[in-house]
Amino acid sequence: MVADALYFGERKEHTSWCVLVIRDPKRKENLWWGFFDTETTFAYRSGRDYLEQLGYEIMSVTGDGFSGIREAFYPIPFQMCHVHMERLVIQGTTRKPELEAGKALLALARSLHTFNGDKFRRYLAMYIEKYHDFLNEKTINPLNGSSFFTHDPLRRAVLSLMRFMPFLFTYETHKDISRTSNSLEGHFAHLRDVTEIHRGLKRAQKEKVLHSILLASTIAPTQGKLKHVL
C-alpha cells in the first residue's frame, strides 16, 4: 500500500487542510481516505484500524518522510519513497547545484533507482568521507562571534539520506513493496486539477467533490461514504 496526504489552502495563513489516502498501487484502488486539518499519526492510524477491521492484512507501506506514517503502521515494513527522498536532497542542493559537493550529492540521490542497497551505502560513505571537512566547515559571525555551518542546506540533505537509509531499500527484502508513491502522486494531480476548476468551493463542498472522485477508484465503497456523497 501507499499512503500520503494532499493539502489544500494556505499553510502560512492557517487555512490549510488535507485529504489522507491509503491506496493499493497494483490494483489502483483507493482503500481508505479521510479529511483532516493536518497529517498526524492518529489520522493514519485511523486508516489502518479501519482497513484491518474490514479484514485487510497490510503487508507493507510506502510513504514520504513524515514520521507519523511509520509510527501508525509499525511494525509493518515501511519503504521510503525514492521520489520524495530525491526531493529532500534537492532542497539542499537545488536542481542546478554550483558546488562540486552539491553536484555529487544530487547525482547520488538520482541513482537510487539504479543501485542496490549495499552499493548505495558504499557510495554515500565514500561521499561523506571525501566531503567531511567541507560539510562541517563553519563560518564565524564577526558581530557576535557565533558560528554556523557554512553549507548547512547541503549538510542537512546528507543527514536526511543518513536518517532515511534504513527505509530506502526495504523492497529488497520485501519484494512486493512499491519503491515510490507515484500511483498516489498521479491520483493527487488529478484531484488537484479537478478542484482547481472549482476554486470558489468551500471546504465542505470540496470534500464532496473529492469523495466522488475517490469513490470512482474504489471497488467496494461503504454505505457511509456513499451517504456522505449522495
Task: Report what the structure shows.
The protein contains nine helices and seven strands, in the order E-E-E-H-E-H-E-H-H-H-E-E-H-H-H-H. It is α+β, with helices and mostly antiparallel strands and 230 residues long. It has two domains: 2-77 and 179-229, Nucleotidyltransferase, domain 5, CATH 3.30.420; 83-166, no CATH class. The strands form three sheets. A three-stranded antiparallel beta sheet has the order 1-2-3, sandwiched between helices. Helix 4 packs antiparallel against helix 5 (117-135). The radius of gyration is 20 Å and the shape is globular. The protein starts with a strand and ends with a helix. The mean pLDDT is 90.
